[in-house]
Amino acid sequence: MRYISTRGTAPALDFRDVTLAGLASDGGLYVPEAWPRFTHEQIAGLAGLSYVDTAARVMAPFTAGVLSEDELRELCAAAYGRFAHAAVTPLVQLDHDHWLLELFHGPTLAFKDVALQLLGLLFERFLTGSTEHLTIVGATSGDTGSAAIDAVAGRSGVDIFMLHPEGRVSDVQRRQMTTVGAPNVHNIAITGDFDTAQALVKAMFNDRAFSRRFRLSAVNSINWARLMAQVVYYFYAAVRLGAPGRPVAFSVPTGNFGDVFAGYVGSRMGLPVAKLVVATNVNDILARALADGDYSSRQVVATPTPSMDIQVSSNFERLLFDLGDRDGAALAAQMQGFEASRAMRLSNAQRDGSAALFAPERVDVDDMARAMRRACDDAGETIDPHTAIALAAARRQAQVGVPMVTLATAHPAKFRDAVERATGSRPPLPTRVGDLFEREERYVTLDGTFDAVSGYIAARAAARD
Question: Is 414 a catalytic residue?
Answer without folding.
Answer: no
